[in-house]
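User: Could you go from structure to sequence for me? I need the amino acid at each position, not a summary. Structure tokens:
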């Protein structure tokens, strides 16, 4: 007698306990993914900010303070309650965000608001169909498909890079502050909405600052912030850096920065060679890029490794491939980054890590050992 087509065969050495544990983990992942969406909504609607400054309140009271629809707020509170983010007192129908949780979820915490990063999850979800198509047919998803990406990146930069500029980032380069105070020329390549370069322009009025980015919308907003900050010493340009190795004016800047901007370029080699071309012989190139090894097995212990690889697959890598680029991806790794910097003509490279920043490496690159 033949076996039924759907007969289940015993798998040798099948570990039921291991299977059950993984099933539990998958359920946790589904719940965490759902909470990421709701945390993003809580951030965007200002609900966490409202809860952070108010005591226990009903859903109607919370909705009124936030200026939102109560029915939606009530359902959102349900997700936050069962997700153990918000505490609920069923006796009086009130909800409360503990101050210890608010420290990671509200704009009152300008450098540790993890809710900012939760926004990446729904954003990436908007291009899932495009990414699946790329898995099947190759190619990439162009930058313009990513809607709010510059807005989220500006928030990210606004709490990770900008607050650290004075006390942590500039001191990585001895004598840089003094040079900036005297007056030098500075370029931020791939500046986005210009948060970092506008901050530097405000701090050092004697220096001249330039920001390049391909996205016209981002440059428009960078210029608006410069006007609001009365930064007359900064200029922003819409510029494609794919051919920067040829179009860069030689020796035109004493300091060039890139903040998380190299790995998603169509031609990162061309950008880096252009940076070297545009830098004076006594100049310095400061690059912030993702802390990774470029080897999957070595990145397993990275505290946000899954998030970074997902961002890489669904944004950084694919926007490069969409333009026929190399598709380095965010996790290209320290070893490859050093090789690219050396190939571009930087003979002296230092790699720094900042105590408060587990996500990035900070590369200080010079054409020679000369330090001014």
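Assistant: Here is the amino acid at each position, in order:
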């Amino acid at each position: 007698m033949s076996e039924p087509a759907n007969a289940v065969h015993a798998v040798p050495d099948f570990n039921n306990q291991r299977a059950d544990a993984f099933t539990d983990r998958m359920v946790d992942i589904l719940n965490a993914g759902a909470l990421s969406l709701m945390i993003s909504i809580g951030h965007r609607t200002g609900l966490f900010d409202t809860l952070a400054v108010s005591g226990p309140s009903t859903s109607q009271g919370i909705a009124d303070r936030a200026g939102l629809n109560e029915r939606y707020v009530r359902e959102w509170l349900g997700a936050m309650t069962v997700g153990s983010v918000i505490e609920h007192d069923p006796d009086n129908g009130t909800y409360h965000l503990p101050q210890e949780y608010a420290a990671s979820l509200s704009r009152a915490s300008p450098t540790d608001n993890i809710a900012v990063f939760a926004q990446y999850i729904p954003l990436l979800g908007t291009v899932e169909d495009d990414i699946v198509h790329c898995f099947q047919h190759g190619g990439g998803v162009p930058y313009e498909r990513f809607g709010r990406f510059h807005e989220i990146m500006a928030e990210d930069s606004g709490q990770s890079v900008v607050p650290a500029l004075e006390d942590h980032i500039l001191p990585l380069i001895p004598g840089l502050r003094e040079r900036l105070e005297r007056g030098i020329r500075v370029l931020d390549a791939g500046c986005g909405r210009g948060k970092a370069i506008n901050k530097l322009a405000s701090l050092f009025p004697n220096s001249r600052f330039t920001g390049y980015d391909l996205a016209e919308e981002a440059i428009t907003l960078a210029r608006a912030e410069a006007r609001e900050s009365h930064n007359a010493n900064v200029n922003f340009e819409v510029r494609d850096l794919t051919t920067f190795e040829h179009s860069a004016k030689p020796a035109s800047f004493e300091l060039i920065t890139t903040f998380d901007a190299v790995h998603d370029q169509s031609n990162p080699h061309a950008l880096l060679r252009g940076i070297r071309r545009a830098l004076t012989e006594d100049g310095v190139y400061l690059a912030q890029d993702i802390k990774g090894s470029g080897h999957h097995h070595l990145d397993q212990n990275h505290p946000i490794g899954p998030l970074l690889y997902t961002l890489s697959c669904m944004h950084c890598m694919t926007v490069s491939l969409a333009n026929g680029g190399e598709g380095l991806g965010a996790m290209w790794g320290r070893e490859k980054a050093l090789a690219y910097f050396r190939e571009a003509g930087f003979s002296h490279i230092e790699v720094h890590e900042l105590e408060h920043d587990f996500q990035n490496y900070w590369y200080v690159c010079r054409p020679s050992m000369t330090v001014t």
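One structural detail worth keeping in mind: The mean pLDDT is 93.
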